[in-house]
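Quick one - first record:
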Amino acid sequence: MALLITEKCINCDMCEPECPNQAIAMGAAIYQIDPARCTECVGHYDEPTCQSVCPINHTIISDPLWQESNDALWDKFVRLHP
């Protein structure tokens, strides 16, 4: 499943440069994650880097509207990084 940045975001700019898939960009008010590009760092790291660098707990969560299996995340990683 892709990740989602909640309204707790303080726009600290920590997550965007850490995303290996370039899935994070500034939205109208807070950063947003493009679910089509988010692999939860599968293929890159053991855990999502955006979550690990975010200074506010529970700001970046699993997106309940974008459910994907680990296999689907791997397939997305392969498509994004041929």
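second record:
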Amino acid sequence: MRRRLAMWTASHLMRPLPGPGEVHVWCLFPEDITGEDTALCKIYKELLSPSEKTDIAQCSSNPKMQTQKLLARTLVRTTLARYASGIVAPSSLRFTKNEFGKPNVIWPVKRLDDWRPPSLCFNLTHTQSLLMCAVTQKAEVGIDVEERERKFTRDLMALARRQLSPEEADWLSQFTDPNEQRCQFMQLWTLKEAYVKALGKGISKAPLKEFTFTFDASSPTVLRNLKQAVTIPISLSRAVDNSDDAWQFLLLQPSASHYASICTQILPSSTFEQGSLQLEGWSNHNNLQVQLWRTVPLVRDEELEGAVALALSDPLSS
């Protein structure tokens, strides 16, 4: 294990910074940890701060939650350290939160003439079966993932009327098949959560009912599982985002069992280096690029296979 860690530090920690309109997404499937070296989770704990360790210890009555918190903190730390040219150890990172709980990274002081801390923005989301960390350079980013088979104990349309905008709830009511209606609701939900998380204001300051994702009326099922990304118009209320910021959205299936959405701020490209890889089904005329990896922190990384773009917003419409 120690030898593997040394090899990982040398090769995997160094990752080129995201370019303009580029989002790097690191995906951790807890099932991939099963069968790994039994010492791996102990090593993950060594990366955490005392407060993080205390938080995890307080969940001793819920082992699944303990594991999820451990993997979440490990994923964030190891992901961000990749972009520091191998200079910064994951354990040396510190974090602060804004008044609404959105975290920011504090890089350790390194007195090196040829290295400056990168201006990274990041966001974490997780279910029991998938954790995802999105990273951009300078552009705010939000990401949300949900399980496709998530069950609801309450009437779905009643929930939609309470949580979604009236226009979205009306659109959702067109679907008479309960399973299809649930899938459409989950997709809408991830889009809205990703936007709120990118804003960093929390739902209390950006109520989900106050902005609307609108779709082509002639194609009410535009959010079905398409093999090609589809441009969708998005209307955002200025009561929620009263700045001049422009946003772009991607709805995708990172796996057959999940829906996820990414929201990222559109910035000028003059100070970036452009990335190259694109998500399957991506339209070349759009400037947003997404790279996805499947990772077991400190062990292995590989490109995520099978991810499909479902819908893409027009950056000029938001």
